[in-house]
Amino acid sequence: MTPVAEATPASTSQRIRELLERPDGLRIDEQSLDPRALERFYRPRDFAPAWDAHDGGLDRTALLLWALATADAHGLDPGRYHLDAIRARQSSSNGGQTAELDLLLTAAFLGYANDVRAGRLPPGRRDPDWGIPAPPFDAVSALTEGVRQPATFPALLASLPPLGKDYGRLVEALQRYRALAARSDWPRVPPGLPLRPGDDDARVAAVRARLAAQDEVVAGVPATLFDDRIEEAVRRFQARHGLAVDGIVGEATGRALNVPVSDRIQQIILNLERWRWLPRNLGPRYITVNTADATLQVVEAGQAVLTSRVMVGDLQHPTPVVQARLEAVVLNPRWNVPASIAAREILPRLRENRRYLAENDIVIMERRESDPFGLAVDWSAISLEAFPFRLQQRGRNGPNSVLPGGGAREAFDGPREDPTGAPGVGIAGKPCLRWGTSASVPMRRVAGKADKNRLAAELHIRHGLSRGRSNVEQRDGRRHARPA
Predict the structure, then answer these.
(1) Is the residue at 246 inside a domain?
(2) How far is it, in rounded angstroms, from Cα 414 to Cα 462?
(3) pLDDT by residue (tens digit) across 422-445?
(4) Are residues 150 and 203 in the same domain?
(5) Are residues 298 and 409 both part of a single domain?
(6) Same domain, residue pair 225 and 315
(7) In degrees to the nearest 10, what's the CA dihedral of 92, 93, 99, 101?
(8) Are 146 and 29 within one domain?
(9) How far is CA 169 from CA 89, 165, 367, in A?
(10) DSSP SS3 for 204
(11) Residue 237: which domain range?
């Protein structure tokens, strides 16, 4: 048997160059590779291999293969990264395959790095309301540097996924939910009337069994009494899923309980992808809004120093996803109600309650002097398609909104809760954000750290004062808080 000569770096380089310069494209073991990205990496290094026994290439290979094999922990498919073809090449004794193996490994790194760092899909490709640009990342440059300085390659691999705690929690949740799915889907709760604490109902046993699939505190015994432990578990479930925390298994909670575990896994995978679309560094002080559970957080030095309920949009009027510098805070603004909201949401309420405008401090601009709240208007005769009035909610009771449009970003604040009385929905939740009943607290926090600045902001909110030295200034006829 004639031994096969081992490929030298020079012969491997020549073979890599030949493969990349093929006019008919590049395919190795039925795997289509991107010759442009590969050439960007190999040409500056004169097509030298990157994964052979020289300069720590074998150690890089082992680390990369481990990362590829565990890509599913991030919701990614390891099959996208030529893993089977790489292993088949590794098991072969033919040294002439070194060039193909090197190209496969480089293509695998570039594909995996781009996917786990910046997302498998371009940001917003399937989400038209996504307004944050893709984080800059060049996988070719990253690999070039990692090969030039072999000691940095482990840190490079570790830095590719998002490093935040929330992303890490999603990775842990994906593992946990996959373990649940491996056992079986969780029990379903039969439909029926809302279940409340103290109820004795056969469906309570189903609720208990469903909660026990995720909540170790709940014993999975078939008890039919809605006791304190069930109520506490329901509240934990509601808080975890962004529902109204009332301890009652109503329609929304029942629907959430019955979402199959496979759907929850897909939700986690999609949210991992969305995390990869986000900027890596938001700075030492920022405000973040979780539209899924309708909460706002002010974060300083990595710690949430304030959490507040907010109102967000819905499926028909989604809240856009944006990143912007908060340049001003408008205290107690007036709000011009969009015509579509006035016609489709306020008019039906007026037909049921003619005092709706007065109760919510909304005036008809055309009747400000004679009949500002429309008490003399026959609302049943007003057309939905041709609403004739302009409505304005006045400053003291106006909405608390973060407007995401172009140009200067402004946060609006007022002390009153939403007129609908329901968190997460309502006339002010589209497409803006609206702070809840503790709106003065976020405004004081945003206005500045000093106690005198917080006090000044609160006074402005409550009394419309414009005196005193604080982060609040008068501009354009409105009171603004200067950014701290």
Answers:
(1) yes
(2) 8
(3) 332 223 334 455 555 444 555 555
(4) no
(5) yes
(6) no
(7) 30
(8) yes
(9) 36, 6, 54
(10) helix
(11) 186-259
Co-location of 35 and 95 in the same domain: yes
| Sign of the torsion angle spanned by Cα atoms 392, 394, 395, 396 | negative
402 has which bridge partners? 411, 433
Determine the Cα–Cα distance for residues 67 and 115; give it in Å rounded to an integer: 12
Cα gap 471→479, rounded to integer Å: 10
Q: Does pLDDT of 398 surpass 60?
A: no
Kindly provide the b/e burial profile for residues 161-183, where b requires at least 16 CB atoms within 10 angstroms of the residue's own CB. bbeeeebeebbebbeebeeeeee
- The widest CA-to-CA distance across the chain, in whole angstroms, is 106
For residues 365-393, give the mean pLDDT: 89
Q: What is the count of structural domains for the chain? A: 3
Separation CA 187–CA 210 (nearest Å): 5
Task: Flag whether pLDDT at 214 surpasses 90.
Answer: no
Q: What is the DSSP string of 74-94?
A: GT--GGGGTHHHHHHHHH---
Contacts of 250 (CB under 8 A, 6+ apart): 194
Token couple for 327: 């340049």
* Lowest pLDDT segment from 132-146, 319-333, 436-450: 436-450
Q: Report d(CA 459, CA 298) in Å as an integer.
A: 21
For residue 438, being part of any structural domain is answered with yes
How much is the average pLDDT of 152-170?
93
CA 150 – CA 255 distance, rounded (Å): 52
| Three-state DSSP class for residue 410 | strand
Read off the tokens for 104: 């496969």
Query: Does residue 121 sit within a domain?
Result: yes
Q: Pairing between strand 326-331 and 472-475?
A: unpaired
The more confident residue out of 407 and 40 is 40
Does residue 143 share a domain with residue 70? Answer: yes
Regarding whether 150 and 105 lie in a shared domain, the answer is: yes
Measure the CA dihedral 200/202/205/206, to 10°. -130
Q: Give buried/exposed letters for 29-46 (b at 16+ CB in 10 A, else e).
A: eebebebebbbbbbeeee
Pair 467, 326 in one domain:
yes
User: Of 143, 159, 175, which residue sits at a domain end?
Assistant: 159
pTM of this structure? 0.75
Residue type, 351: R
- Kindly state whether residue 368 falls inside one of the protein's structural domains: no
- Contacts by residues 383-388 (CB-CB < 8 Å, ≥ 24 positions apart): 384/343, 384/344, 384/347, 385/343, 387/339, 387/342, 387/343, 387/347
For 8, which DSSP code? P
